[in-house]
Amino acid sequence: MAGFLEALEASGADAKLYLKPVGFLDSPHYFDAQNQRLNNSLIWFSQIDCGVYESGKPTLRALVPVDDWPIMSNSLPGWLQKQAAVQYEHLTRIHDPLICGDRVIRFDQPHVMGILNMTPDSFSDGGKHGDDPQGAADAGFAMATSGASMLDIGGESTRPGANMVWEGDEIKRVVPVIERLSQCGAVLSIDTRKAAVMEAAIQAGAHIINDVSALLHDKRSLEVVGVSGRPVVLMHAPSSGKNPHKGDGYGNVVTDTFDWLEKRIADVVEAGLAREKIIVDPGLGFGKSITDNLALMNNIAMFHALGQPLLIGASRKRMIGALSREAPVDQRLGGSIAFAHHAIQQGAQIVRVHDVPETVQAAQIWRGMRDAGVTARV
């Protein structure tokens, strides 16, 4: 640690610190002074992977035990000490529950968000529900009955190469479904980047706005969300234009995505949105290569340093096929559950999935194991 601190003194003024909780413990009660709870979850970490980057490139790295962190953080150069304090506070922050009408989402356990696409061209289930809002609603009721805390209803595909949908058509697709699901017991999320669709969905009963453009695509979106008081998911994508996948690549996809989300959170909070109503999503698959996606999946825990609940959506995505002998979309259940389980193990509060019953079961098994580990006195 001494060598790390000495090297830091030579760092430039643009050096930035990134904290990633690691060394997760199955039975933290045996090591009370040597671990810290990650947010208010069922996960405790015993070490901090402390990385320093300059001009987007890694320059220094140290693995710091939690019980050494006070000494370490107080020994950092002044301009890095503030970064360290903010990020550590974020890692240990107790997230307030989301109040969604008469529904409450607590973040002391992971939640499954079911995907309900009312589109003819989504990459996985496009056209499944067609012009049948009652059939779609029945599918949503089935997801809620199977244990989905949230349902994400979308009327426009954002897969690579998809055409944009006129807001009027998008409204016609999603509103009848939201109205039918308003009493299903799950929190309803509208997956859209258009302010008019947000307004119509809110009127129909939507509780959360999930915007792949992080409220950048439509100039009115920020105002609509602010006036409504609804929680919002801010997702990272390389472009807020017609094609959310269009970008120039990344210097370092993990830190670039982190920095982008950090700035976007600050901007929307400055504009008047309440920080406790913001959820973030690193945007797996949006303008990112398989290597990029895997880097993000391996560093999910670092995004807790942003201070917001995390939503991870890897269900049935192309990287699963690439890692499993090009398995077609309808044969990616195992990979989808593997990614969802990994995200939960890294502390993600919400996993967005197509296969609700199977993912809920996996999350319940994980929860049972965590409860046993925390309470066991072996």
Please characterize this protein's 3D structure:
This protein is an alpha/beta fold and 378 residues long. The chain folds into two domains: 2-91, no CATH class; 98-375, TIM Barrel. It contains twelve helices and 14 strands. The strands form three sheets. An eight-stranded parallel beta sheet has the order 12-11-10-9-8-7-14-13. Strands 1, 2, 3 and 4 form a four-stranded antiparallel beta sheet that branches. Helix 4 packs across helix 5 and helix 11 (333-345) packs parallel to helix 12. The longest helix is centred in the last third of the chain and has 20 residues, at 356-375. The protein is globular, with a radius of gyration of 21 Å. The model has no long low-confidence stretch (mean pLDDT 92).
The CATH superfamily of the largest domain is known as Dihydropteroate synthase-like
State the CATH architecture of the largest domain: Alpha-Beta Barrel
DSSP strand (E) fraction?
15-25%
Low-confidence stretches: none
Q: State the helical fraction.
A: 25-40%
Biggest sheet overview: 8 strands, parallel
Please state the average pLDDT score: 92
Provide a quick synopsis of the model.
With about 375 residues, the chain is of the alpha/beta class. It has two domains: about 1-90, no CATH class; about 100-375, Dihydropteroate synthase-like (TIM Barrel, Alpha-Beta Barrel).
